[in-house]
Amino acid sequence: MDEIRKISTDNFKIEDNLISFSDSVIQISNISQVDVAPPPKKQFNMGSIGAIVVGLLIMMIVPGVQVLGVLIAGCGVIYVMLYMSTYSNEKIYLNISLNSGRVYSMICKDTEFLKQVLQVIKYCINHHSTQLVQIDFDNCKMYNSPVIVGNDNEVG
C-alpha cells in the first residue's frame, strides 16, 4: 500500500465516471475496492524498538555520551507513541482503494450512512450512472441517489 489519505470533507459528488471532493477527483474505473472499516494500517517499523534498546545501552554502557543515548531512545519512543496514537482509535471510515495502491479514507459520524454511500458507489460502478449524486457527509444526506437503501432492498 503506497499511501493512505484521510479526507475531511463535508460532501462529494458522483457524476458520470468521476467522484469529486474538496481537492481531488477519482475515476470510478480506477477503484479496486470500497469498504466501510478502519483505515488500513501501515506496517510498524521494528527499527524504532531497536533505537530504544540501542539508546538505552549507550546511556548505560558508554560514559560521557548519555545525551546521544537519550536522543536515540527518544526518537524510538516518539515513533512508537505516534504509531499508537494514530491507530489506537478504531474509527470507521469509508475507504476507497485505487488500482495504484492509494487509499482515500473518509470519516462520517454515522456508520450506517457510510454503508449507504458504499451502496451508491457500488451501483455507480455496476451501472455507469450518468446522473449527478451529491453526498453531504456533515448532515448524512444524499441527493439524487439512484439507489434507495433500506431493509437491504435496492431500487434503481
Structure in words:
The chain is of the alpha+beta class and 156 residues long. The chain folds into two domains: 3-39 and 96-143, no CATH class; 47-87. The chain has helices spanning 47-61, 66-87, 111-127; strands at 3-7, 11-15, 18-21, 24-27, 31-37, 93-98, 102-107, 132-136, 141-143. Strands 4-3-2-8-9 form a five-stranded antiparallel sheet, covered by helices on one side. Strands 1-7-6-5 form a four-stranded mixed sheet. Helix 1 (47-61) runs antiparallel to helix 2 (66-87). The longest helix is centred in the middle third of the chain and has 22 residues, at 66-87. The radius of gyration is 22 Å and the shape is elongated. The two termini are 34 Å apart.
Q: Any key phrases for this structure?
A:
elongated, 156 residues, four-stranded mixed beta sheet, five-stranded antiparallel beta sheet, alpha+beta
Topology:
Layout: E1 3-7, E2 11-15, E3 18-21, E4 24-27, E5 31-37, H1 47-61, H2 66-87, E6 93-98, E7 102-107, H3 111-127, E8 132-136, E9 141-143
Parallel strand pairs: 1-7
Antiparallel strand pairs: 2-3, 2-8, 3-4, 5-6, 6-7, 8-9
